[in-house]
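User: My collaborator sent over this chain with a note saying "see what the structure looks like." That's all I know about it. Can you take a look?
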Amino acid sequence: MTIDFNELCNSHWDTEQWNDIYKNIYINTDKVLNYGIKELFKNPNLTINFKIDTEEKYFKKDEINAFAKIYDEENYSIVLSKKLIQLLSHFSRKIIDYEFIFSHIKRVEENRQILMELADFAFYIWIQSIFFHEFAHIVRGHLATNYRKSRIKTWYEISNYEVNKKLKKEYIKSLEADADKWGSTFMLGNAYLILEEMFKKHYKNQNEEDYLYDYILTIVLMYDLFERLEHKVREEFNESDFDHPHPEYRALISLLILGEDHLQNKVFTSIDSQKKMSIAMRAIQTYFLEFRQFSNTRYSKQMLGWVNFINKTRKILEKHKINKKTLFKKKDIV
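Assistant: Without extra context I'll predict from the sequence alone. Here is the result:
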């Protein structure tokens, strides 16, 4: 599928509409950062600030990106570019035109409002995913560790040039995988009320398996968009290797935590762990065959590396003792 970045990025809404979106994002992140989170940290003085770069002070004009930054070991920030948020918003309106996602809703004019609400759901899930991914880089100790070792202060979501110069690619990908897993853990632990509300409103005649299937497709489409963005940037600099795992790997990493006990009573409670992974694989296959237009043979080849990647990632994380570098009092806290 071809994504027209110019079309996505150049669509405009009025200022008031964007201000409402920004306000909702700030409310959601504020609940995480300022209500009870400090008591979970080993260091009670640790502070994480969140900002949307509406005035383009932190990014170049029209740059699509996000970052987590360390100032010292007690002060961090997470910043999302205005253009990234706009791109995700417009992309959410694109995906509802594809019948392989939210397939229980017929694509007819009288259902357009329902589909727009599902697009909004996808958009806010994506924003939450990005926020908690950057949050995970901080609280899993990635930034503090690499600041001490290599004086790296800023960890970008896309175009991580400083990191690429100083760290090995496999190590970078392992930290990204770790942030995907724990970011998803934090998100599902904190955003489950949004998930429950959407389920009750738009899946009342469906079961949780249909909902999980669409949720997985929503996540993998976000990762697909990010890979395309990274590919676009790397083409400009004649670089071939990516900082992040493949989109389907990232989605599966994010879903591995669905079977963990501390989330069982919050999300997708009627589905056992084995069934969850079966649904995940079916959604990933749909992504390849319907969205990417892969053949079955090419899809199978793409997935062969999944187990090897996970095993390699675990070994690298164990080697660098990442689990012992968390800033939380307990490593399994949500």
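A starting point for your reply to your collaborator: The longest helix spans residues 208-236.
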